[in-house]
Automatic annotation (TrEMBL):
Span of domain Zinc-ribbon: 124-144
UniProt KW Coiled coil keyword: yes
Annotated stretches, region: Disordered: 148-184
UniProt key word Coiled coil: yes
Biased composition regions of type Low complexity, renumbered to the chain: 148-170
UniProt keyword terms in alphabetical order: Coiled coil
Pfam families assigned to the protein according to its UniProt record, in alphabetical order: Zn_Ribbon_1
Official protein name in the record: Zinc-ribbon domain-containing protein
Residue stretches in coiled coil: 87-114
Amino acid sequence: MMGLQKANAIATSSIAADEKRGMTMGFFEDLSATVNRGLDDASRMADNAGAKFKLAEAKRRRREAMADYGESMFEAYSQEPTFAQGREELIAAVAKIDEEIAAIQAKIDENERRTAEKKTVLSCPTCGATLAEGVNFCSNCGTAIAYEPPAEPAQPVEPQQPAQPQQPAATVDFEVVDNPETQA
Ligand SMILES: [Zn+2]
């Protein structure tokens, strides 16, 4: 009997709890909605971060495409007077940068050429033994190995400007002297 009473008591309290829960349901719904909205915010922010990354990436690709486009336009029309008009500074700037690129590239090429040359396997001029890379003496006969400086590139060598002797600046003093004798 005691068990049934206890069960009833539990059932009653459970109903009471349900009723109480019913009274507070609005609060829980609000909280639940808040939590759901929070989750939405988090996933929306994550989605937005992804979208922003994609946007930056797409903009970067657009800039590259525009650079290619501009370059092709430049190649095609920079010699046209109508195109060049108003773009003189831009065209001059590009020409200057092109010169710079050519000079840097030439330096790189020259360095690589010299490096490749030094790596060339030589043979001893005395005994003909194959020499290891960069050795100063033949390991077979001891002949000193002189490395010839690499041949100058086939570019025309710029004539050296003769040193201009420092000329004193010609100074001419114009001094108007009033000659009182001629004014008489
Ligand atoms: Zn040798």
